[in-house]
Design goal:
alpha/beta; single chain; 4-stranded antiparallel β-sheet
């Protein structure tokens, strides 16, 4: 079954060109040219991946990325003609999996999407050199040393580890804390992260694997990235 890709792009010729290239691969493209139409479409159709332009009529790409991340982990690749470093970082901090700068070749876009999709599919095995999670026992393992976690701590760590180095806002992490949809606040997240961070430091000989990103949230930096 083909992966569905949502191409959010108001340059119609470019969108159609990209759609033609994705049709030649294992993707079923869908096109939207106005930002206000995106959220409802994503909630209804749940695409496999989203190619999201930064500058759109109606709701802009940055706002859309943040809104989508509030309810979905679908891979998002931001597309922008702005090469300003702040725009790049802002897109990634809000939960984008990659960014592509215009002008580009359609083949490059397909290759970048494929790379992100492979990374996402492989992320279900939460391991890296020296680090792994045991969901059956709610245990984090670092170089053979184990630490028992609470259910909430494990779910938080699993969410961070599935997308290493990606910054998660507190709101995004809240979604994985409890199964009964209770209301929690930022202080609750910070308290759990503080306890989880200490447990990881204890088993990693002082390595601080969870990083706070001022004004953005938290990310996990795995051993090979230190």
């Amino acid at each position: 079954m083909a992966n569905s890709i949502l191409i959010v792009e108001d340059e119609i010729k470019l969108a159609n060109l990209l759609a033609d290239y994705f049709k030649l691969t294992d993707y079923e493209p869908h096109l939207i040219d106005h930002g206000d139409l995106v959220i409802d479409w994503v909630k209804t159709h749940q695409p496999s991946v989203i190619l999201l332009d930064l500058m759109l009529p109606g709701t802009d790409g940055i706002t859309l990325c943040k809104a989508i991340r509030a309810f979905s982990d679908v891979p998002i690749l931001m597309v922008t003609a702005k090469v300003d470093e702040i725009d790049r970082l802002l897109g990634l901090e809000l939960g984008a999996d990659d960014y592509i700068c215009k002008p580009f070749s359609p083949r490059e876009v397909v290759a970048r999407v494929n790379t992100v999709m492979r990374r996402v599919k492989n992320s279900h095995s939460v391991t890296s050199p020296g680090f792994s999670l045991d969901e059956n026992r709610l245990v984090a393992i670092f170089n053979g040393t184990e630490s028992s976690l609470t259910s909430v701590e494990f779910q938080l760590l699993k969410r961070l580890a599935n997308k290493p180095s990606r910054i998660f806002t507190r709101e995004q992490l809240m979604q994985n804390m409890y199964s009964d949809d209770r209301i929690v606040n930022n202080r609750t997240i910070d308290s759990h992260i503080k306890k989880l961070r200490k447990k990881l430091i204890d088993i990693s000989q002082g390595e601080d694997l969870i990083q706070s990103v001022y004004g953005a949230g938290y990310r996990l930096v795995l051993p090979e990235q230190l």
